[in-house]
Amino acid sequence: MAARQIAAKRAGAAGDAREAWQAAEASLAAAAAEVEATRKARDAAREAHTEARLAVQARRLRMEHLAEQLQERFKLAAAAAVSLFADQPPPTAEELDRQAQLEALIERMGPVNPNAIQECAEVEERATFLAGQRADLEAALADLTAAIERIDRTSRRLFKETFEAVNEKFQALFPRLFHGGEARLELTDPDDLLGTGIDMLVSPPGKKVQNVGLLSGGEKAMCAIALVFAVFQVKPSPFCVLDEVDAPLDDANIGRFNEVVREMSRQSQIVLITHNKRTMEIADVLYGVTMEEAGISKLVGVRMQ
Q1: Which CATH number fits the domain that encloses residue 282?
Q2: Helix (H/G/I), strand (E/B), else coil: 279
Q3: Hey, what's the torsion of the CAs at 36, 37, 41, 46, to 10 degrees?
Q4: More reliable by pLDDT, 146 or 214
């Protein structure tokens, strides 16, 4: 009987111990769950703290950047900007849209040049100087154009007058040198007196009017002599040098040539280089070169008077 009571007591104690152990286990599990929840809350709080710190840092950087922009672009301190605009209402949608447009325009304009005003003044000064130079050049060009036109008019007039006078003298000299015939000078382009050429149309005795290029050598020489003497009669020169112009002439032409030369010598000093004896006869002074000794030249002069 006593053994049964003892066993029953032990069984009851074991049941109480089991219940206590189960209660302890449940309490431990609850504590573990609470610890896990606390750890999660701690991690979340730590993450939120980190995010908040980063947000504060970003805001601080944003504020510093805004302060630098205010100082750089508007020369305005952040505290002064706050005191000026803190009490004003927030911008409207239209104002924000206008701000975006202005910012886009500024972006397209590019960075601001702080020396733009000085450079603009220098460019304006340079432009004023160049404008003055251009005005001077245009005035000089106008003067040159007027002078060229005046010179062209004078040249045309003088050329026409001289051509007509030379042509008249040439028409008078030609029959004297050829003992007849006729000749004249013609302009290749009468409408352009400054660019025209001159044709010599001649008709020696017994021949038709033809171009001087179709004449013989002696006839060409006589035509050239007639033209040169015609020019000298219109515009006399103190000296006239004729080098072997009588070489292609025959005796009959030499006589007429010498006659005209003697007449021309009254107003100009004629220097003739010739080997023709008949031409030498009309000279007032003869100069020649002789070589009495081999290799030694000697200049000889003779006054025919």
Answers
A1: 3.40.50.300
A2: helix
A3: 0
A4: 146
* DSSP state, residue 238: S
How far apart, in whole angstroms, are the C-alpha atoms of residue 206 and residue 215? 13
Comparison of pLDDT for 250 and 131, the residue scoring more: 131
Give all strands (DSSP E) within 209-273, no chain letters. Answer: 210-211, 239-243, 269-273
The rounded distance, in Å, linking the Cα atoms of 231 and 226 is 9
Supply the pLDDT for residue 137: 94
Strand, coil or helix: what is 155? helix
What's the CA gap between 154 and 151, in Å, rounded? 5
Range of the domain at 247: 236-305
Mean pLDDT within 106-127: 85
Residues linked to residue 288 through DSSP beta bridges, in sequence order: 300
DSSP type of residue 246: T
Per the domain annotation, does 220 fall within a domain? no
CA angle 59, 60, 65 (to 5 degrees): 95
Domain annotation covers residue 286: yes
- Total tally of structural domains belonging to the chain: 1
Q: Which residues pair with 290 in a beta bridge?
A: 298
The answer to the question of residue 32 being in a domain is no
In order, the DSSP letters of 54-121 are HHHHHHHHHHHHHHHHHHHHH---HHHHHHHHTTSPPPPHHHHHHHHHHHHHHHHH-S--TTHHHHHH
Mean pLDDT for the chain overall: 84
Closest of 296, 234, 43 to residue 51, by C-alpha:
43
